[in-house]
Structures are given as C-alpha cells and as structure tokens.
Amino acid sequence: MNDLHGLSGLQNYPLARRGLMMSGLMSGLTLATTRVEAQVIHTDSIGIEAGEVKIPVGDTELPGYFAKPIGAGPFPIVLINEEIFGVHEYIKDTCRRFAKAGYAAIAPEIYARLGDLSKMSDVSQIVSQVISKAPDARMLQDLDGAVAYAAGHGGAATRLGVTGFCRGGRNTWLYAAHNPNVKAAVAWYGPVGGAASEIQPKSATDVAGDLKAPLLGLYGGKDGGIKVEDVQAAAAKAKAAGRSVEIVVYPDAPHGFHADYRPSYRADDAADGMKRLFAFFKQHGAA
Fold it and tell me: Which domain holds residue 274?
C-alpha cells in the first residue's frame, strides 16, 4: 500500500499493546514519530475557539477537533482529513491555523471505531489493523456528519472546502466526488491508486471523473510512494470527463512535506501550498 512509502521519521516496531476504541482524541503527537523536529508549529487560541468535540453520526458520536473564529459567523467551513495517525496535535494545530484565517475547521477521528491510534506506534499495524478495515462508505458518512456539525456551530455549509494529508489526501479526492456541496478540494500528496477491496472499492483515480468540485493536488517530486505520472493520469481522467483538476508538483519535496513534526517537512513548499490553497478556496467560493 503506497501510503507507507516516503513517510520519513516514522516508527516501525511492534505495538506496546492492542489499541482500544477511541473515546477522545490523543494528546501530543503520534507515537509513530521517531523524533519530533524542532520546527513544529504551535498555533495559539487567541481570537478563536478551539477544542475537542463529539460529532453525531448515525447512532454514535465520533471524537473530533473543531476550531473557529470568535463570533457568530457564519464562517466558511473547511473539512480536514487526517493522515493515518489520528487527530493528534499536528492536525489540531492545522485546524487552529485555519480558524485564524477565518474558517470553521473540523477534523473528525474517522478511525475511532477501529482502534485507539494514540496507543499505536507501528505503521504497518496501523494500516493492517485500522486503515484497511475502514469502509469508505462509512468514512464518507462520517465526513458528512462532521460537515453537519460545523454547519450547526457557526459554519456556512454553502462555503465548504475540503482538504487532507496523505491518506486524508486520498479521502479528499473521494469526498469531492461524493458531496455536491463541496466548492473546492485540496489534496496534499494523496495516493491516487492502490488495491481495491470490498469495503474500499475505488481509488482516487477511479472517482476522478466523478468529481463534483474543482480539485487542487499538491504533490512531491521525490515522493517515494506516489508517482507523479500516476497523479497526472488521474488528473487527465478528470479533465476528460469535464472536471477541473490542477496538479502542482514540488520537485524536491518528499512525501509529508506539510507535516512540520517530521523530517519530511519542507517549510517553503508547505507555505506555498497553503498560499495556493487559500487562493483556490477563494476562487471557487469556499472562503
């Protein structure tokens, strides 16, 4: 599974113990980090409201993180799709960054039913025991629930953007093909291929022709697991179907170049990507 390639700075040793279903979010960064880099970004909560929330989905509640500017709003919504490591401090901080920029940012923990990612440190076991067992249909339902939560708490459902990182980038492609209310989508180094299964039947390439919103893909030219030509092929499929897809490749960037807590972080490319994201959201009505 090409999510595992290029994830520099991640642990690969046995779990301390089997994770249990998550009832809340983890504190700090993922245990799958070999070391925490000095450049980790810390965003304060001055001028915003931010914290853990419970997101109603069907007959249950998922833990999530929500941040928005202080005030009644309504504020544009950005749905943030996590990596494979859970809604840890990096994802929470990303929510706060969006709130500082005027967004109601929501990040649901979509793997909460399957395991406690706060206790997991082995990448291959995270994938085999949690990620590969997460049905896409339920993932999309959970993301719908997160959007509904944000819309009910000061967010404007008519100005909806979606973004995500790594596996969350892949889920961003899928969600942009699922929800007709999405105005713009930005996928950060999201895999576009991968083996199909009964519960995960389609890849990003498979749904490229069904995109319901313009999509911007941000990819690294030195990503060890995602080939640029595969990404361009997915974009070509979308364009052949009349969809709008723009791909930006940072030639010297590896996988995970936005992840400031890992050695893969590339500050200039991450900053440029965020600048492009905000411009893309504004251009397409998600601001």
Answer: 2-24+32-283
